[in-house]
Amino acid sequence: MTHRRVAILALLVVLAGLSVGCTPEPTLYRWGVYEQTLHEAYENPEAIPGFQAELLNLIQTSETDGGLLPPGIYAEYGYALYLNNQPDAAIIYFAKERERWPESAVLMTTVIKRLEERIADEEKGPDGEDVPAPPADETLSDDASSADPNQPDETPGPDAATGSAAGASGESEQ
After folding, report:
1. Which long-range contacts (CB under 8 A, 24 or more apart) does 112-120 make?
2. How far apart are CA 75 and CA 78, in angstroms?
3. How far from chain centre, in Å, is Cα 36?
4. What band does 123 get if pLDDT is binned at 50, 70 and 90?
5. Taking residues 98-124, what's their average pLDDT?
């Protein structure tokens, strides 16, 4: 072989070695565009809904085709649901995080317990008594529906107990 052929062959081997190093390694977890959308959400709060949508897309895609989600994705989406005033849905995703990643069990169990306590407290009245939910088909009572909207309300105002003339006549005190 001539020196020229050896040099060309060596150059081809080097280029082949470099091209192998340029191909991305497959990762263990499915990240999608998580990092990019997370950064955008930190930089611009208006991008948070897009980040939450990406989390849901990542979860749904991984659950559909069996991809492995990174630790914390279920919990992060659960927290996003909590911030959007959806505590029941948040608990579902916190439980999924606990199930998928047993090392998070202590934290996720604590979060779920506190969230359930908060939901239970919100369902109680100010005196701590359970507030019964009204029946779904409850309508206005006959008394309220038969009241003439053109007649003044006969319910005493706040000044009625003091006997103030302003409350009874509707005039204001100066």
Report:
1. 115/82, 115/87, 115/90, 115/91, 116/91, 118/87, 119/87, 119/88
2. 5
3. 19
4. confident
5. 94
